[in-house]
Task: structure prediction
Amino acid sequence: MKGEVMRREFEKIEWIKERLKHVWWSQNNEYCDTGKHPRANASFLNGALRLFQEQQPKVHELENRINLLTEALDVKEQLNQKLRDREGELQKRVDAIKQLIQVYKDEEKELGLKEWEHSTIYGRVAIELEQALKGGCDEAN
Result:
């Protein structure tokens, strides 16, 4: 049955359809000339069908590869979307920390010298948070 299905696919090819008008399919599973047309259509079609049948496994293999690559691209896009979502979540955290830093800096300015100890603590916390956001924390400061 596989050969029959493959032959039907072969016969759907547009330029093959024209030549099919001058041949018939025999019980020997080959095309035969009707004798009404001067060309050797049957020989041509039999050879073309054999080549078509030989190439079909390669075509199917390439189609399978395309499908696998398409699936891989879909997975990659899903992962990229998750990364973008995660990046957005992390950016919200970074923004919140930046706001906190500004609050510490503003409080440090408001406290002035009267509350020197609190001012020093807030200032140090602000500096450490800022350094952490930049990607490092210098413990010597």
